[in-house]
């Protein structure tokens, strides 16, 4: 039985591929994007989140585990000794604690995903996202294999930074790839994500030869990856591929900042405004000049 760690399941999703979809978010990612909207999915190991604004200081977690204590009317969590077993989260009556990184089998995942099968009939389906789902490619392949037996549309939302063999494992069962494209410049890509984009671009070229539909997902973060040179470079590269169905522009926002604090990660989210409508239209216009269908989310 193939197992995987996951962080969440989102039902009735409309931005994770065509139609109404159910998206399963898996844990672990090879990138460390400074603006990550799902920081709870970056590490492959389980993590405990604490939402201070929900805590009512009932002391139930401290009764369960010595990592928690109440001092001077506040809740304190000793992360250095926390094993992320999740017992405290199970005991919290107000959901101020949440464990990210629970384990499920491929059969359990398929059973959950099929609960929404009725809503997939109008072009919808299932998307595996993350984090980076293809780090757990055997699990993804088995889930998609079972779903394809029921003619359900399967999409993988990937950053592309995994060995090609991981793509090969899911290719027979994947209808569509939602492919992240952070920045065309390799050094700037490294500054923004922790790694350069060589493998990502190589894998995208290989996907182009496989006849699969690929939608590019391009996050736009002012002062970081939105220069005209970067957008033109992306347009030139992407227009050389035949598999691109569209480029979807994803405007930056800082809504995930609270998540960084909840899971005890350093807050790296840029302190910049979301791109303006004119900024988005300018970026879309540049990409459209390369004959790329461009969608602003």
Determine Rg (CA atoms, Å): 20 Å
**H and E string:** EEEHEEHEEHEHEHEHHEHEHHE
Number of strands: 13
User: What structural class should be given to the helix and strand makeup?
Assistant: alpha/beta
Low-confidence stretches: none
Shape: globular
Largest sheet: 9 strands, mixed
Give the averaged pLDDT, no decimals: 97
DSSP summary: helix tally: 10
What is the terminal-to-terminal distance? Answer: 38 Å
Proportion of beta-strand residues: 15-25%
Helix content, binned percent? 25-40%
The neighbouring-strand order within the major sheet is 7-1-2-8-9-10-11-12-13
Task: Describe the 3D structure.
It is a single chain. Helix 3 packs across helix 4 and helix 8 (228-238) runs parallel beside helix 10. Strands 7-1-2-8-9-10-11-12-13 form a 9-stranded mixed β-sheet. The chain has helices at 60-64, 87-91, 106-113, 137-148, 164-170, 186-193, 198-208, 228-238, 257-262, 277-288; strands spanning 3-13, 21-26, 47-50, 68-71, 74-77, 97-100, 102-105, 125-129, 153-158, 176-180, 213-220, 244-251, 294-296. It has 297 residues and is of the alpha/beta class.
